[in-house]
Amino acid sequence: QLVESGGGLVQAGGSLRLSCAVSGSGITIAAMAWYRQAPGKQRELVAAITTGGGTNYTDSAKGRFTISRHNAKNTVDLQMNSLKPEDTAVYYCYVPDYDYWGQGTQVTVSS
Questions:
Q1: Which residues pair with 105 in a beta bridge?
Q2: What single DSSP character describes residue 25?
Q3: What is the pLDDT of residue 41?
Q4: Cα–Cα distance between 75 and 16 in angstroms, integer?
Q5: Higher pLDDT, 50 or 1
Q6: What does the alpha-carbon distance between residue 94 and residue 72 come to, in Å, rounded to a whole number?
Q7: Cα(first)–Cα(last) distance of the chain, in Å?
Q8: What pLDDT, in 10s, does the model give residues 38-59?
Q9: Cα separation, 35 vs 56, whole angstroms
Q10: Does residue 53 come out as left (phi exceeding 0), alpha (psi in the -120 to 50 range) or beta?
Q11: Residue 25: its pLDDT value, please?
């Protein structure tokens, strides 16, 4: 089970930090990721990170978002800076190894 937190309403140019924790002991996770889905659009990958710290970002997130993780705790964070109205979406944590999706957290950026 994935538990997300940290969404909310922020003005353009502001920051938010999303957090996701994987419950359950003895779970080994290779990669963790954040996706988002805006109204009327397909869900898209925002950022992903491997156990070794390798990262991948969608072009619109590069330079503004930072994904990080704590391997021992099986948590992953997404620091979002310089937010824009087009970042408004429901953000989902995802663990590919187990096809686990979080419940989603709303991020709304006002202009």
A1: 91
A2: S
A3: 96
A4: 17
A5: 50
A6: 17
A7: 34
A8: 999 999 999 999 999 999 999 9
A9: 12
A10: left
A11: 67
3-state SS, residue 24: coil
Which three-class secondary structure string do you get for 27-70? CCCCEEEEEEECCCCCCEEEEEEECCCCEEECHHHCCCEEEEEE
pLDDT in tens, 5-44: 999 999 999 999 999 999 876 778 889 999 999 999 999 9
Contacts of 108 (CB under 8 A, 6+ apart): 8, 9, 10, 88
Q: Tokens for 49, please give them.
A: 């990170």
- Token pair of 92 as six digits: 């989902």
CA dist 31 → 8, 24, 55, 69, 88 (Å): 25, 16, 10, 10, 24
Q: Is the dihedral of CA 28, 31, 36, 41 positive or negative?
A: negative
Region of residue 68 (left: phi > 0; alpha: psi -120 to 50; beta: else): beta
Kindly report, residue by residue over 62-91, the tens digit of the pLDDT.
999 999 999 888 899 999 999 999 999 999
